[in-house]
């Protein structure tokens, strides 16, 4: 029945219906086993970088080492934000072997995505920290807290609530951008779709199917994002 329904759609026929049905599970399997884990691992590592960079930039400058590190992260952010992610991935996977550094496809993808997320998310984290009124810092110092104690107990929870929506959007964007990993031979869901399309020489239905599957996964992520935001609203209200 499903086969007949798909074959009845515009620009479809029985052969295309069979192609779409046979390609569905391989694409979904690649999404579950490769694309989503790749996005999760890259996002976690990217957030570790982002928090470190953001804290370095919001902490009052003290000493030459701090100034050197600050200059380094400013250059890092400028380079990442000023170059396409595709170019960054190609440099990691195809460029580094020229100087004797060889990285497997999945680790190369993780490195490229993590560095990209770290640069962009650091701006989100920094803005979230700066959005907390300075009086909150002063209140912490007044009751005898150190800088780190004030940040951890007072500033971070408030900044986290502000950062949740943009960071959630960043993760959803990262999941979609894992399709770029196909360029460095990672067999994620879009590369599987490419392989199916190349074997059949019929690209339109397979790519539309891949787009539909991406949309379905993103819709689930949108719902998760909404639930997280509601929970954070209730937490802040308490």
TrEMBL record:
Keywords: Amino-acid transport, Cell membrane, Membrane, Transmembrane, Transmembrane helix, Transport. The keyword Signal does not apply. CDD domains: TM_PBP2. GO terms for biological process: amino acid transport. Gene3D superfamilies: MetI-like. GO terms for molecular function: transmembrane transporter activity. Belongs to the binding-protein-dependent transport system permease family. HisMQ subfamily. This is Amino acid ABC transporter permease. It comes from Pelistega ratti.
């Amino acid at each position: 029945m499903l086969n007949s329904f798909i074959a009845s759609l515009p620009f479809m026929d029985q052969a295309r219906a069979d192609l779409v049905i046979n390609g569905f599970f391989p694409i979904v399997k690649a999404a579950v086993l490769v694309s989503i884990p790749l996005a999760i691992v890259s996002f976690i590592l990217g957030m570790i970088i982002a928090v470190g960079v953001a804290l370095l930039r919001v902490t009052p400058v003290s000493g030459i080492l701090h100034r050197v590190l600050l200059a380094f992260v400013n250059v890092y952010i400028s380079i990442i934000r000023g170059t396409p992610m595709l170019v960054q991935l190609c440099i990691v996977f195809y460029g580094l072997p020229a100087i004797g550094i060889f990285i497997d496809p999945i680790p190369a993808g993780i490195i490229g995505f993590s560095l990209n997320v770290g640069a962009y998310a650091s701006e989100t984290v920094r803005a979230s920290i700066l959005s907390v009124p300075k009086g909150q810092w002063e209140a912490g110092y007044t009751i005898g807290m150190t800088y780190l104690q004030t940040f951890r107990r007072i500033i971070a929870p408030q900044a986290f609530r502000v950062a949740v929506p943009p960071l959630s959007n960043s993760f959803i964007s990262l999941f979609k951008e894992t399709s770029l990993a196909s360029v460095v031979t990672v067999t994620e869901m879009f590369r599987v779709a490419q392989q199916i399309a190349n074997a059949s020489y019929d690209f339109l239905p397979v790519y539309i199917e891949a787009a539909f599957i991406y949309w379905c996964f993103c819709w689930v992520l949108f719902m998760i994002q909404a639930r997280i935001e509601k929970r954070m609203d209730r937490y802040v209200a308490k």
